[in-house]
Write a structure and sequence with these properties.
131 residues, alpha+beta, eight-stranded mixed sheet, globular
Amino acid sequence: MSGDPNPTLGRITWVDLTVTHAEAVRDFYAAVAGWTPASVDMGEYVDFNMLGTDGAPAAGICHARGDNANLPPAWLIYITVDDLDARLEACRTLGGAVLAEPRALGPMGRFAVVRDPAGAVAALYEAAPAE
């Protein structure tokens, strides 16, 4: 994830796609959308930030491995929230489900994946506190 360092609460901050064949999908979007891939080291493999023609990150293409192994092959939006734990409790209370419990996004913050009562999936993102 390489979005705005000061994301606006309630806004879609990032979007990525998790798939089993990330390299093939990376190449597809490079050709179809005109994006340029930039490798993101994940330790044992690399994911990709896809850069727009202005060089700014536009989206991510990720491998369906590790914590991402059970994510569906669909574009996942990340909505910035103020208090991830409180928002997850609201999700559960209002009939949603937490599909992936909170986890770190390096020094940027943390996120969780939720499903709303209609079945749509999104990620909730809480930025790390400003230093």
